[in-house]
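Hey, resending since the last one bounced:
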Amino acid sequence: MLSLPEPPETDTLDVQLVKQFSKLYLIQSGYETLPTAIVYCEANFGKIDGKTANGLVRLSPNFRILAVIDSEKSGLDSGYVLDGECNGIPVCASLKDAIDNAGGIPDYFIFGLAPSSGMYSESEKSLILYAMRLGMNIVNGLHEFLNDDPVFISSSETLNVTILDIRKPHAKKDLQTFSGIIHRVGCPRILVAGTDCAIGKRTTATILANALRERGLNVVLIATGQTGIMQGARYGVVMDAVPSQFCAGELESLIVGAYETEQPDVIIIEGQGALSHPAFTTSAAILRGCAPNGVILQHAPSRAHRSDFENMPMPSVHSEIDLIELFGEVPVLGITLNHEGMSAHDIEETIKEYHKEFELPVTDALSLPAERLCQMVFNTFPALNKQLPSITQ
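The C-alpha cells again:
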C-alpha cells in the first residue's frame, strides 16, 4: 500500500482560497497566478469517461494543472497521451506521487471522471476527503452534490476548504422557462452538435471560438456541460442538471444575457449528447433553447456503438443531419470528425467521401488548420467575414 503524507493539524491549516465559485467563470491573465490543481482520472485518462480530465489538460484558463492521476498511464506525459505532443503535465500513479511531483499541496483536487452514473464510489469519496484533509479545495462535476452530504459539509467547515459542485443548478424559484426572446438576438448563433456523447463537441466549439477571435471577431462561447464551465467559460449552464421544464428557458436566458452584455458578432453553443440519442434529452432542449441559425455536426466514423451503450449502434451522418434539420428547422453547415481510431490517411479519405456525399465542408478540428472551421462559418454567414479588418482578408 502506498504511504500518503500526513495531513496538517486542523488548527494549523492556512488555506487561502484563490477563487470563490462565482469567479470560476473568469479567465485569469497570468498563467503563474492561476490556482494550482491535480486532476483525478483513474483508469480513464484519454478515454471517453475521462473527458473532463482530457478537456482540462487541453485547455484550462482557470487552473494551472500540475498532474493527472491515472495509475494505468503513470510515467507518461498527458499531452502525449491525448494528442501525441508533450505538454509537461505528468500522469502520476497516485495522489502521493502527484503531490510529490508538484512539490507541495496544490490548491484544488479536481475530479476529472465523467461516469454515466454521475455518482461516486466509496473509495473515491474517501480519497476526496483525504485531499480535503491535506488542505485542497474540491471541484466536483458529478450529479452527486458533495455540499448536500453531511460528512462533506462538516469536513468543509472544519478544514476551511471549499467544495465546488459545478453541476448544481439554480434554485427552482430562479429558473427560467422558454419565452421566445432568443429571436431578439441579432447575431448568428451556431450550435456544435454531434452523433453521440463524448465525441468532441466542446473541443470543436472551443477551437472554433478561439479561431474566430484570432481573426478579430467578438465571440461568445456558451458552455452547456461541467467541463466547459471548469475550463472558464464566462457563460455556461450544465444542462443535464436542470429540470426538463426549464432546460430550454435557462439556455435561452443565458444567451440573451450574454448578447446584451457582450454585443458579440457571433455566438457558439456547445452541444450535448445527440438529438437521436434517447438517453440525452437535453440535446433537444439545447436545439430549441438556442434556436441556432446553423449547426456544425461532429461525428466519429470509426465508433461502432454509442459511448457506454454497447447495444446501440451509432447513427449515420445522413440520419442525424435529417433529424436536426427537420426538428430544428436549421441547416447543417459543416461536418467535423472525431479521429479516434483513424490514421491520417483515413481522415483524408473520409473527408473526401463526406464532402462528395453531403456537399458540405468537412474537417478535423484537432488535426487540421482551424481556418477550415472558420470557413464553414463564413460560407453561411459571409457578413462576418466582411466585418474583419482588411489585413485578415
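Residues 96 and 369 are 39 Å apart (CA to CA).

Sorry for the duplicate.
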